[in-house]
């Protein structure tokens, strides 16, 4: 059974940093591309960025480029999202997604950027 569990969300001040984790079980984690998405209530879920199966290639939305970094540890079956210089508009629920079959989602972790 595929399971993705996000963690690391919380309240942070503008300009601060957080690192999110996505722990994966139930599938061959190292075989698949993984992605981070985020969603603000009332808005569509948007892609933050993704990482190739080996971790050699990443891509980012323009809104986070230069501030966020996606990485993965295939031995630990975990993906990370390092978020620096956070802005109020980064406030959202952050989800990880396994990119195979129709896609598998975690339940999300809330990030709130506020002073």
Helix/sheet category: mainly beta
What profile does the largest beta sheet have? 7 strands, mixed
Distance between the termini: 40 Å
Shape: globular
Number of strands: 11
Low-pLDDT segments, ≥5 res: none
Helix content: under 10%
Brief descriptors of the model:
single chain; 115 residues; globular; mainly beta
Characterise this structure.
0% of the residues lie in helices and 50% in strands. The chain is mainly beta. The strands form 2 sheets. Strands 2, 4, 5, 6, 9, 10 and 11 form a 7-stranded mixed beta sheet that branches. The chain is globular. The model has no long low-confidence stretch (mean pLDDT 97).
